[in-house]
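Justification of resources, computational component.

The compute hours requested in this renewal are based largely on the per-chain cost of generating structure records like the one below. Each record pairs the submitted sequence with a full structure-token output. That output is archived, and it is also reused by downstream analysis tasks.
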Amino acid sequence: MRREAGVSVVALVAAVAVLGVLAAGGAGYVAWQNTEKVGRLQSELETTKRGVSKMSGDLRQASQDVAAAVKEAKELKVVADRLTAERDAVRAAMESAQAAGDRMRAELALTKEQVSYLASRASKEVVRGMPKVATSR
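The structure output for this chain reads:
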């Protein structure tokens, strides 16, 4: 029985050792699997970080482009306002010149009528001495 007990103990120790080796192997396999998953996740994280960094750079560039466009739009608005004011001033000057021309034509017509009237009332010698063509000074 002692021999049987020794064999049983040895068989038990061997079985425990085999189970330990299997457990250690299983734990090693699980650790290896987890290490691979961690490596893949780190790779994905790096890829995501690069994507975020690129997007951040693109966003910064877009912000600069928008700021430049806003500045240019403000400058163009100032130019447009100035040109509108100049157009309005030219329009007012043209209307004023046209009104002055109309007044001068009316005064000329009145002057012609007055000269005609005076010429018809004056003696023939005075009428002959009147200039026939306007002289420029």
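Residues 41 and 119 are 113 Å apart (CA to CA). The chain is about 90% helix and 0% strand.
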